[in-house]
Amino acid sequence: MNKSSLVRNGPFIIGVFFLLCLLVSSYVYSFYDSYDQPEKMLYDKSGNIAALAPFSPSLRFPLGSDLDGYSFVFKLIEGAKYTIGLSLIIAFCRMIFSFGLGYLLYRMPLSLRTLFSGLSNAFHYAPVTIFTFILIAPVVLTFSWSYDVTTKIICDQHPCFSSIHTK
């Protein structure tokens, strides 16, 4: 795929434009945010308390608010620069790491290269979700105190979790 075909690809342009707008709005919001106190109570026209935080989605709070009255929309915009920036850093590090390993593989003798080629083909056929599940299972069990009872029951019944479950 060459560069001119990416410029003509509509979904690619829309995605890049959306991420750039989100990134720019995150930095602009961080720069101009006055860090006002959140609204924990909403008042009606007569001055009576109409609602307490957390607020449900409305025109004033499009995605609702947290217990302190901070709008989830502004929380998402504020955190976008960290999420997008971290994903770009991780992608760049993966490219550098892959380039280094590829160069080392290129410099190896042919017999070792064929051995590593066979091992790498296993990653093409095994689903990534299996490797992800194996890596994430200990983390899920470590933070199991934050899950509800239904999730804990399902994890207790699953054979992968029950062998390493701590009570």
Write a brief structural summary.
With 167 residues, the chain is mostly helical. 65% of the residues lie in helices and 4% in strands. It is built from seven helices and two strands, in the order H-H-E-E-H-H-H-H-H.
* Fraction of residues in H or I helices: 55-70%
Number of strands: 2
Give me the side-by-side strand order of the main sheet: 1-2
Q: How do the SSEs run, as a string of H and E?
A: HHEEHHHHH
The residue ranges in which pLDDT falls below 50 over 5 or more consecutive positions are 163-167
What is the gyration radius calculated from CA atoms?
A: 24 Å
**DSSP strand content:** under 5%
Distance between the termini: 53 Å
Q: What is the average per-residue confidence, as pLDDT, rounded to a whole number?
A: 81
Helices, by number, come to: 7
Q: What structural category do the secondary elements indicate?
A: mainly alpha
Principal-axes geometry comes out as extended
Largest β sheet strand count, sense and barrel closure: 2 strands, antiparallel
